[in-house]
Fold Xylanolytic transcriptional activator regulatory domain-containing protein.
Amino acid sequence: MAQSLGLNVNSTGWKLPAWEVRLRRRLWWAVYVEYTWRAVTHGRSSMISDDDWDVSPLTSADFTIDPTAMIPENIRDQSLDYFIRLCSLTEITSGICRQFFSLRAVSRPQILDSLLEQARGPRQQLLKWLEDLPESLALRPEPSDSDADDSVKSHRSLYVAYYTTHILVLRALLRPIIDSNTQLNHVQSSVETVLQACRGLIQTVIKFIRGLDARHQSAFWPAYTRNCLAYPGLFCYMLCLQKRQPDMTAYDQNLLATWRKTLRTRMQSWPFLRFAIVKVDAIYWKKLY
């Protein structure tokens, strides 16, 4: 429908009111974000080809709002930053999925050296994306006393998307490591680096989930977030399957148990976590490791 309406085409030069051009641009990026994350979280390839749209990245000018609209200035600015950064992150995520998770990509021999070289670009993009976040979206420690500001924190879901994208990259690197038929003795240092990065990311996500409280429940959480929150558990399970560092097996299993415990602790007040805990519980119920 979006393509039928021409939302995927740059309408800057069209004979349309400026407000409609801005609206069309925002609508296209909303469609692109929603469709891409639905594809990612459901394990499907995206049907949106880069050759089929030419809408340039959003800017603050695309969010010009009627001055009579009663929108608090701090909420308006934060929402603008949030959506612009989510769009840029989604582009990175889409590229990672095409590069590492398309049918052609997974059918090729999984050579760690080659995968590490391919992953360098996306990892640098993610690092730059994180470094360029505006102050309004920074993830800062918050006071826990009862007098603290309980305003809606609308950017936590952005970090869930970021961690999911980071997990996608490391999942691709884990594939040859957990494959017992792949010889990796010549790149043992690379194996250790990847495994350490995986453990560090899981610990970061656990800390992030523990930091969520009642003040964040009223924020905007996209529907696909519940699927994103299932990724860390499945990723941790992949880590438990590695046999390259037998002495770390117990540590990896403890990480999975810690993630499960964290989900159980937060599940009562966070419905979005229920899908994630079901996925983790299934690993234990079926005794998959």
Observations:
- Residues 146-151 have pLDDT under 50 and may be disordered.
